[in-house]
Structures are given as C-alpha cells and as structure tokens.
Amino acid sequence: MACVWPPQVSPLRGGRRRHGSFDGAHHGRVNLPRVQAVLQGITTYSPRAFEDFAPPDPTCFGCYLTAFVGTEDSGPADAFDFLVCTPLWLGQCFAEGGGPSGASPGPGYAWSSDGRVLFGSGLLLVERWSAQAIHAAVDEQCQATAGPDWGAVASRLGRVLVWEYGYRYDAHVDAHPGPSFPPERV
C-alpha cells in the first residue's frame, strides 16, 4: 500500500475536524466561554536556550523539548513534553535493538511485546533541525486547540504533546464520571 499525503478523508466518517473546532452550537448546547491554548515558550534539556540550541548533526538527532502552554502570554503555564527527531535517528533506534529490553526513545513510548512495533505520543518528526519551524509547528497546534475549560484544552493538546498532568486529569475523570459519551440518541 502506497503512503498517501495528505491522508485521505473517509467519506464514511464525514470528514476530519480539527480538535479546536467544537463550539457546542450544533449539539443544541449553549455556547460556553472559550479557553484558548497559548504557547509561552519552549525549553531544551540543555544549558542553552531553545533559540540558541542546535544538535551536532541537524539531519540525524533526537532530543526532548518542553513547551510551556497556558491561556495567556504571561500567565501560569503547564509543561507539555515532546521528542523532536529525524526519521533517520528514529530508524537508528530500531536498528540498535529497540524492543522491550532495548533502547527506547523515552517516556511516552512503549514497545509491543514482540519488540517490532513502537507506540508513542509527543513525537515531532522533522527533516532537519530548525528552531523556528519547531516553534511554529507547536504554536500552530496551540492556536488550533480551544475548549470550554483548561482541563479540556490541556487534554486535547495532550493528544499531540505529553501533558505533565495528563494522568491526574484521567484520574479526576475516572473519579467523577459524567454522562456517557457519545450521548444516547432520543
């Protein structure tokens, strides 16, 4: 099967919707106040600032970054971690053994029991290092993410970047179940 880009939309699914497009109006609900994700900055695990950082080989690298995202340019922010890497570097992770007993790209990733499949979240694949392109891509995700409250916004952004409080949000939802979703049709 050939790789098709951009991904084709299945006519059976009714098309794709960006996760920031929910307004509630088409579900018969009152429009709620909107909370918008705002990227406040990105840091590296290096003594150098993100803007000044560059890996030794910009075409074959993997490094962890943290995006600080809040609802205002200068208000409190939560951390969202992600691995930015090139396909070449990720391929080397597989070539060097990988699997349950071998190297892993890091937190947020889990090998299948046979060591042939890697599940992951918080992954940004790039052709080569560009702090500007990485910042722009994360900012675009933030701009596309909104919701009725911060928990919803952070949970939605957490589908793409690993939210530091994702486990706590899940525990809260588990402890306080609401109506089932999707709602039953009347």
Q: How would you describe the overall organization of this protein?
A:
With 186 residues, the protein is an alpha+beta fold. 22% of the residues lie in helices and 22% in strands. The chain has 4 helices and 9 strands. Strands 2, 3, 4, 7 and 9 form a 5-stranded mixed β-sheet that branches. A two-stranded antiparallel sheet has the order 1-8. The protein starts with 34 loop residues before the first strand and ends in an 11-residue tail after the last helix. Mean pLDDT is 77; it is low at 1-26.
What order do the helices and strands come in, and which of them pair?
Blueprint (H helix, E strand, L loop, with lengths): L34 E2 L1 E7 L17 E9 L6 E9 L1 H9 L13 E3 L6 E3 L2 E3 L5 H13 L2 E2 L2 H8 L4 E2 L2 H10 L11
Parallel strand pairs: 4-7
Antiparallel strand pairs: 1-8, 2-3, 3-4, 4-9, 5-6
